[in-house]
Design brief:
Blueprint (H helix, E strand, L loop, with lengths): L1 H6 L6 E3 L5 E5 L6 E7 L3 E11 L2 E3 L3 E4 L3 H19 L5 H16 L1
Antiparallel strand pairs: 1-2, 2-3, 3-4, 4-5, 4-6
């Protein structure tokens, strides 16, 4: 999933939370599906909240330590997303949201 997100950042529904974490998807809209990417200098944390059925969530959080390939991919992804959000505001929210939901359902089922 990380390689797809890095390659096609512009196709997905992104946001930043107040802590500066990168959010893929949304838990405010149905179907609820969101992945939070948190970055520190020592580790990255990927926290999915993907609703399988109302009230039933799938996906497990993952932590990757520095010097792993996944850590480097998440750091690269976060940089790309933050740059993307600053520069490109001409996205179709409906289309990017549908792409995001399709990707998350495929990955987490």
């Amino acid at each position: 999933m990380l390689k797809e997100l890095i390659k096609n950042t512009h196709k997905y529904f992104w946001n930043l939370n107040s802590d500066g974490d990168v959010i893929l998807g949304s838990s405010d809209l149905d179907p609820k599906a969101r992945v939070t990417f948190t970055y520190t200098k020592k580790w990255v944390y990927i926290a999915p909240i993907v609703e399988d059925m109302p009230g039933t969530y799938i996906g497990k959080p993952e932590i990757f330590l520095k010097k792993t390939a996944e850590y480097e991919q998440v750091v690269e992804l976060i940089k790309l997303v933050k740059a993307f959000l600053k520069t490109d505001s001409k996205l179709n929210p409906d289309k990017t949201f549908k792409n995001t939901m399709k990707l998350l359902r495929k990955y987490y089922q």
